[in-house]
Specification:
There is one protein chain. By secondary structure, the protein is mainly β. The protein is 6% helix and 39% strand. The protein has one helix and eight strands, in the order αββββββββ. The strands form two sheets. The protein has a five-stranded mixed β-barrel with strand order 4-5-6-8-7. A hairpin with a 2-residue loop joins strand 7 and strand 8. It is globular.
């Protein structure tokens, strides 16, 4: 038995079910507006551009560039205390939207090419990023 509390997970919903299923398969899925074609991340009910509610899903390339980052020195939930400090990175995905995830890598720089790394945890998948392999670019 452990005294470490369970990691909080987003509540399941019909709106985000396809997104989380994609991550469980190792794939980052984006919603794409059925009206104007603008992709979005994280799943939302309405398009931020045209307010249309129709969507389809597409697989993201998994590539992007660092927009910003922050280093957490305080655990917002007790389950993360043992992981401090950790870095969260905001990435401009190739497809357009920004995504937030855990950073697995070394030094960061604005514009650094990165790729998705999906970590399968006991409670569910976690969207993470790492330095893109220069040979794969």
């Amino acid at each position: 038995m452990t005294d470490t509390p369970a990691r909080p997970e987003p509540p399941p919903s019909a709106l985000s079910a396809a997104y989380w299923e994609g991550l469980r398969r190792g794939e980052l899925l984006l919603q794409v507006c059925a009206n104007c074609g603008v992709p979005r991340h994280y799943p939302r009910l309405l398009c931020c551009e045209c307010y249309h509610d129709g969507v389809h899903w597409c697989a993201a390339s998994g590539r992007g560039r660092v927009h910003s980052w922050t280093v957490a020195h305080y655990a917002y939930h007790p389950a993360f205390a043992a992981e401090l400090p950790y870095t969260l990175v905001t990435v401009d995905l190739e497809e357009g939207p920004r995504a937030l995830g855990r950073w697995y890598g070394g030094a960061l720089a604005i514009g650094l090419p990165v790729r998705v790394r999906i970590v399968q945890r006991e409670a569910g998948p976690e969207l993470c990023f790492e330095v893109a392999d220069a040979a794969a670019s």
